[in-house]
Amino acid sequence: PLTQEEISQRRELARQRHAERQAANQSAESPGSADAGGTSTPAAPASGGVTDALCAQTEALSVRTTVEDENKEHFVAFARVYSGVVRKGQKVFVLGPKYDPSLALRAFPEGCSVADALPSIPHMACCSVDNLYLLMGRELEELDEVPSGNVLGIGGMEEFILKSATISTSPACPPFTPLNFEATPIVRVAVEPKHPSEMQKLVRGMRLLNQADPCAEVLIQETGEHVLVTAGEVHLQRCLDDLRE
Which spans does this entry mark as compositional bias, Basic and acidic residues (predicted)? Predict the structure, then answer.
């Protein structure tokens, strides 16, 4: 979604392009008065309505783009390459913290790879790496491959990772232990939507929050209440803001 500053910049660019186009058309129609009409055309009352209409179209386009992008969540997994080279489009195993490699060694034939048809193993999934990103503050630079020792972002893992996981090209890889945090979630609040008709949106939002925030927990009580467990008041406010937005 575009910010207000970006919308203003695009509006100014549209105005400048429209003013230049009007000046070029006027100079083409009356070559003798090109010098006099070059700078006064943008402020002429006749072109004001056209300029306002163009600005309105630009704003409408920006708002429509924002609305379309609101329903698309893009998760970027924050990762570090410990061994080998990870490449865009590479097929990998996604191993959960409770994955047991001995089960895979007994079930899989020797020398198998991700491309083979493999039986289902608990806490293990197969997928391909959609995108690799170099994390540059607010910006993301796409990469084709990343060698070991680097920190990167991986796209396309939202369906396979809950909080943390280990990515490997070998099913014999033991998974890393789950992340341990000093702060234990202790603040419990019951959350409900302002309008009962938006309950599905709340459930979907809490599912995404539980997937993305490693220090937040989501519970459903026997009474049907949706409980959010956070590490403190500041963390709770941050989670509620995420749910609203």
Answer: 7-21
